[in-house]
User: Which sequence fits this backbone?
């Protein structure tokens, strides 16, 4: 007996219409099963796409905000040009440039413009070296300064420790105008070595260039290298900071921002340190003299946010970084070891709080790092061009830091604003 054939509807056991219906049901069920399986992945992909779009919108808004701040500052003659970088341990997120290297220059400001860091030298250079030498056990923070500089003698100087120098509690005056002596670097250094204390150590905090000069000399005595060579070998080269040095190369003058028309030297300064005492000391000192670019300062900031490592180079161990960037005594001052921390009217703005740390430079530079937010804020400018009698940089620093926090950490900003300004910095 012939078997029924599906192709022959008259001889089929099941009508063709029923068979097709069964196939359609099975196909739809399969599609539904696939859709249910893929639904979480599709949702995650959509969320990821939305998150990326949100990040792009936030970064665009932040860039526009900072661009407006810097452009208005140029129009207001706060500086002829500047660069600001907002970043994290993974690198820069927003980079903004404005204006030109000089009021009459044809060269626009870029991330490769070389700036006189002024007192950022204290943290970019001297503090970096001190961290390494303390970490290696070659320098003891509690040791008297005279252990390393035995010629540093005078009333009560035997009581001053390395920690006192780093926290500006050594009892030293803020500065001395020894450059006016028009002496050699060696004789100028002797004048600083012989400077008597104003007070006993630990009595008060007085921000002192002289302490940083002494720290630079301690680095040299302990390491057996000049300060500039030590920093290039042990800090800048390992971190890839190829443009950071004392005394910029002559061939880089075209991308170096001028500073002041200096009445003492009788010329517009370009590629030579602005600080007069640093110049008198031979342009290499612990308190001032370094030049650098935004691209290089990014690398140092990245190392601080990445446990002391940037690329293949290492600055210091994470615990050493924490030691140096933690406020020494908050009831006494806002100072950490070498670094400062946020305080009332700080250039860190209104929303960065400890354990954030940073520093400023007289020429118009600043660096603030907030490890709790994985955030750094760099602002480099030459506000002393053509004259140091220009104090408009202060509000610009605050505006840039606040813009970064508002855009990237709105919840933190909202909490601080709700708490109110009377709560103070923590």
Assistant:
């Amino acid at each position: 007996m012939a078997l029924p054939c599906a192709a022959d509807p008259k001889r089929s056991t099941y009508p063709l219409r029923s068979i097709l219906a069964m196939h359609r049901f099975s196909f739809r069920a399969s599609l539904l099963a696939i859709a249910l399986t893929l639904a979480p992945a599709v949702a995650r992909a959509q969320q990821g796409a939305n998150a990326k779009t949100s990040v792009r919108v936030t970064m665009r808004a932040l860039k526009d905000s900072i661009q407006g701040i810097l452009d208005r500052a140029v129009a207001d003659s706060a500086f002829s040009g500047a660069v600001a970088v907002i970043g994290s341990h993974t690198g820069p997120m927003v980079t903004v440039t404005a204006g030109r290297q000089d009021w009459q220059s044809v060269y626009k400001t870029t991330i490769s413009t070389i700036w006189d860091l002024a007192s950022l030298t204290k943290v970019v250079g001297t503090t970096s070296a001190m961290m390494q030498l303390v970490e290696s056990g070659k320098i003891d923070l509690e040791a008297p300064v005279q252990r390393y500089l035995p010629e540093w003698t005078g009333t009560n100087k035997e009581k001053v420790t390395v920690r006192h120098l780093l926290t500006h509690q050594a009892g030293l005056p803020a500065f001395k105008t020894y450059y006016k002596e028009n002496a050699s670097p060696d004789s100028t250094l002797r004048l600083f070595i012989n400077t008597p204390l104003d007070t006993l150590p630990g009595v008060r905090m007085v921000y002192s260039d002289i302490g940083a000069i002494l720290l630079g000399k301690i680095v040299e005595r302990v390491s057996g290298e000049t300060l500039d060579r030590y920093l290039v070998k042990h800090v800048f080269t390992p971190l890839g900071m190829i443009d950071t040095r004392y005394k910029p190369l002559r061939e880089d003058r075209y991308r170096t921002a001028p500073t002041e028309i200096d009445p003492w030297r009788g010329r517009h300064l370009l590629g030579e340190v602005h600080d007069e005492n640093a110049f008198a000391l031979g342009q290499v000192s612990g308190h001032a003299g370094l030049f650098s670019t935004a691209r290089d300062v990014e690398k140092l900031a990245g190392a601080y946010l990445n446990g002391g490592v940037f690329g293949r180079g290492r600055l210091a161990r994470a615990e050493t970084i924490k030691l140096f960037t933690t406020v020494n005594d908050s009831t006494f001052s806002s100072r950490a070891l070498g670094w400062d921390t946020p305080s009332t009217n700080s250039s860190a703005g209104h929303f960065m709080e400890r354990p954030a740390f940073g520093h400023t430079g007289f020429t118009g530079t600043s660096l603030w790092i907030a490890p709790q937010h994985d955030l750094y804020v760099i602002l480099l400018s030459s506000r002393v061009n053509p004259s140091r009698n220009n104090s408009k940089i202060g509000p610009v620093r605050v505006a840039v830091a606040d813009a970064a926090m508002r855009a990237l950490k709105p919840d933190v900003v909202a909490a601080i604003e709700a708490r109110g300004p009377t709560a103070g910095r923590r």
User: Anything to note?
Assistant: The chain has eleven helices and twelve strands. The radius of gyration is 30 Å. The chain has a mean pLDDT of 91. The CA atoms of residues 256 and 345 lie 31 Å apart.
